[in-house]
Predict the 3D structure of the following.
Amino acid sequence: MMNAHILDMTRKLSLSYEIALSIGGSLDLGEMMKRFLKTVVRKGEAYRGLVWLLDGEEPTLVSAVGS
């Protein structure tokens, strides 16, 4: 039981570290978003990821990736 908890916490910490690296890896916002989303999709076992920004009332798609 304790080992499962430690393993889960280690996975979460590893994901947080990889996300931080992907965010800090580029000064270009578009490139950073792509790296961030690729990391989250790959490690989060998702099929795709999207980032939308609200400008007033209109959402704008900033970046999208798929597995």
Summary: The CA atoms of residues 15 and 43 lie 7 Å apart. Residues 2-66 form one domain.
